[in-house]
Design a protein that fits this description.
Elements: E1 2-6, E2 20-24, H1 28-38, H2 43-46, E3 57-61, E4 64-65, E5 81-86
Parallel strand pairs: 1-5
Antiparallel strand pairs: 1-2, 3-4, 3-5
Length: about 120
């Protein structure tokens, strides 16, 4: 049955810039398999070397994370939409240390005649 995968902008370079990809699938796992068969370069961003879904990849059927509904075995019905939502990490990383949030910035000087 046809279902639609909603591709986030961060992964569209791997789907020929497609924001949506329609596939034939009965489960979320089958939908991902169809996606990676059509666009093999996206696979490394979804699965680890052990063929497990990467922990930072979240998949939503409607508003429900499939981690709460059976994972990739979650059944799909005709016309369903599955959104791929990669987690965004923060904090320290390759861009350097996180800014010191304890630093207090001085208030700008009051304009003359404003009384403050």
């Amino acid at each position: 049955m046809p279902v639609t995968l909603l591709i986030p902008s961060a992964l569209r370079s791997f789907t020929d810039r497609q924001a949506t990809v329609r596939v034939e699938a009965n489960t979320v796992g089958e939908a991902l398999a169809a996606l990676t068969d059509t666009y093999p370069d996206i696979r490394r961003h979804l699965y680890d070397d052990g063929n497990a879904l990467r922990p930072f990849v979240n998949l939503y059927l409607g508003e429900t994370n499939i981690k709460n509904t059976g994972g990739t075995a979650t059944p799909l019905k005709d016309g369903d939409e599955v959104a791929l939502v990669p987690s965004i990490a923060g904090g320290r990383g390759i861009c350097g240390p996180a800014p010191d949030s304890r630093r207090v910035m001085p208030a700008p000087p009051a304009a003359e005649g404003t009384g403050g």
